Amino acid sequence: MTILESFKEAEIRQIERKYALLTHTSSDPNPDFTCKSIYGIVPLNQTKMAERIIAALLNYISSANLEPGCKLPSEKELGEILQVGNQSLRQVLMILQTLGLVQSQHGAGWFVKKFDPTSSLQILSPVFEKFGGNNIFQILDTRLTIEPQIACLAAEHISGKGLAELSQAMQQLHILGTRIQEMQEYDEDYINYGRCDQMFHNILAQECKNNILAMLNAILSKTFDTVRFRIFIVRIEEPLHQHQAIYNAVSRHDSRAAEEAMRLHIEDTRQLFRNHRHLLQ
What we know:
The protein is an all-alpha fold. Helices cover 70% and strands 3% of the residues.
């Protein structure tokens, strides 16, 4: 047998093996063998498959220039475009809906949604709190790293709309703070005060024009919010003054003053929890 004949015979065997891979069924005794011997890999598990479909779908949305509000093709058409099954596609769409990237409208189909990291990624907060091995001091240390920079950038880039929203949040903090100081007890006003506090920080994150910082803030802010109420101390006056100092600096577009005011605010909060560490047990 010549070298050329040997090469052709080997090529035919390779083609036959690839055909066997394509026609492999679940009843075969060793379904991974052919895939391993030809490609050196095993078939993707369900998690890896979902990750790959997510990447393909996001790439399709981007390549097709589908803006928020645009309708996606039907699930059948989308499955044909991405070459995936209906069940796998539906799982991926549900994941992306949870992350705030797409939205299902009953009877109308799937639509692209505007991604807002300050709200979409808050769903990860319980994961970080319960399974991330984090404690409130790690959260505050991280906030101390990123939030002064958020305040600095927000002072530089905040829009008129953002400043109006920040002003409204500040006014609500004053109204609710005054009521809480008068009552000196935990009630609905205190819960609403916490929500306004969180909103204040989220507005700054949105207006800093840095999506990475905004995403980190979204996760940390919600995680911290679920822990803060473990310390039953009514403490309003100092934080209120600190928020006012941050607002004043941002409204003047004084980035350095905003950064310093935020740093002092987070340091003061961290010290409060350190002083009452025993209440976190």
